[in-house]
């Protein structure tokens, strides 16, 4: 008897209730899929659900290590193991003459070549590391850098 009265009790309301329920459930999911940050700018290689960038990367574009080109990830693996490196210049002091990275004393930064497929020379891609664990990536020969989030 009770089961027979349920359809009459909700007649006309069920479609609206289901639609409202779906909107309430889907809205937070769809909001989390946005590709813009809180300032409305498109994020370059960042994940809004990720932990905040370290203080040394404040104000910089960032890139997660898995999103780097395969050659850059290979260079990072060589850096982690101490080489051997393919180029004599790898590991040399990076002067930061362009002032694109935070100012530090000479010797704080070191640079490593990231191979560029099809290039006959070292190409424009580099990884620059800092004494305090900072890692930066450039693909335009020091004109811009992104902090690498590992």
Automatic annotation (TrEMBL):
SUPFAM superfamilies hit by this protein: Microbial ribonucleases
Q: Which UniProt keywords apply?
A: Hydrolase, Nuclease, Signal
Q: Which InterPro entries match?
A: N1-like, Ribonuclease/ribotoxin
The domain of life is Bacteria
Question: Where does the record locate the signal sequence feature?
Answer: 1-39
Task: Spell out the residue ranges making up region: Disordered.
Answer: 36-55
* NAD recorded as keyword: no
Protein known as: Ribonuclease N
State the organism's lineage.
Answer: Bacteria, Bacillati, Actinomycetota, Actinomycetes, Kitasatosporales
């Amino acid at each position: 008897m009770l089961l027979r009265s349920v359809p009459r009790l909700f007649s006309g309301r069920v479609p609206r209730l289901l639609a409202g329920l779906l909107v309430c459930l889907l809205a937070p999911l769809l909001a989390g899929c946005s590709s813009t940050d809180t300032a409305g700018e498109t994020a370059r290689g960042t994940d809004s659900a990720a932990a905040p960038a370290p203080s040394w990367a404040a104000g910089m574009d960032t890139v997660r290590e898995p999103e780097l080109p395969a050659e850059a990830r290979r260079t990072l693996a060589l850096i982690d193991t101490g080489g051997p490196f393919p180029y004599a210049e790898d590991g040399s002091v990076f002067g930061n003459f362009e002032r694109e990275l935070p100012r530090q004393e000479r010797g704080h930064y070191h640079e490593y070549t990231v191979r560029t497929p099809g290039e006959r020379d070292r190409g424009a891609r580099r990884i620059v590391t800092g004494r305090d664990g900072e890692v930066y990536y450039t693909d335009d020969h020091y004109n811009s850098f992104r902090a690498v989030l590992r």
